[in-house]
Amino acid sequence: MEERLQKLIAGAGLCSRRTAEAWIQEGAVTVNGATARLGDRADPARDRILVRGEPLPLEPEKCYLMLNKPRGYTCSLSDPHAAHLVTELVADCGCRVYPVGRLDVDSQGLLFLTNDGAFAQALLHPSHGAEKLYRVTVTGLRTDSIRRLCRLRELDGEAIRPARVSLIGEDKAAATLLFAIHEGKKRQIRRMCARVGLSVRQLCRVSEGGIQLGDLPEGAWRPLTAEEIRPILDQRR
Q: Considering 79, 104, 106, 116, which one is annotated as catalytic?
């Protein structure tokens, strides 16, 4: 059956659908020897599809992982400038997976990895509104800091959805805030904090899409349960 190329590539576990679209636009995908264009469709049972010179693999068994990402690891499949990649931490999972969304190199906590493009899309697409919770330790907190954070509607000229922010701990050295956001713009929380004069000392994602990091040790991973996966995939139906 014919399907859009980006869906076939993501479904084969090579990358997210967005990345697959970029590869097509770069000319890295061919169908029966012809360079593919965005919007093209193909049938893996009939057509010879090459991605970066390699045949499109048969669709693998779906794999869904949760990782407690440490600081110092980059969320990428390949980056010549990165000291460490998150995929190194799940190399023993038995399948090829890619990270879902952003968690910058200086941040830690919950990160999903999968080879299922539909699962990644359900988490990332703004229309599905998957809530993300972050525990953020900051210095420089003032009496109006939380109010100002909650009122932010743009960063560097780009609109953002309102965040929920609450104080969950404080001592003489620092304060700990809980952020709830529905977006994943690049370094969003760090940029929000800088905007109101706060310095981030630690940023940890503790929940996404209703799935909790819990007591998973730093650097460890575990498979997601069927009960955790189903509600996320159901959003697409």
A: 104
Whole-angstrom distance, CA of residue 95 vs CA of residue 63: 7
Q: What's the sign of the alpha-carbon dihedral 81, 62, 118, 185? A: negative
Distance CA 4, CA 26 (A): 16
Comparing CA positions, the residue from 87, 52, 91, 44 lying closest to residue 69 is 87
**Which DSSP symbol is given to 126?**
G
DSSP string, 61-88: PP-EEEEEEPTT-BSSS--TT-S-BGGG
103-106-111 Cα angle (round to 5): 30
Which ranges of 29-144 would DSSP assign to H, the alpha helix? 117-124
Query: Within the chain, which residues score under 50 in pLDDT?
Result: none
Single-letter amino acid code for the residue at 76: S
Q: Is the pTM of this model over 0.85?
A: no
Report percent pLDDT > 90 for the chain. 68
Q: Are 26 and 64 in contact (CB under 8 A)?
A: no
- 13-49 burial: b if 16+ Cβ within 10 Å, else e: bbbbbebbbebbeeebbbbeeeebeeebebebeebeb
215 a catalytic residue = no
Compute the distance between CA of residue 170 and CA of residue 234 in angstroms, rounded to an integer: 39
Ordered alpha helix ranges (H), the chain: 5-11, 17-25, 117-124, 145-151, 188-195, 226-234
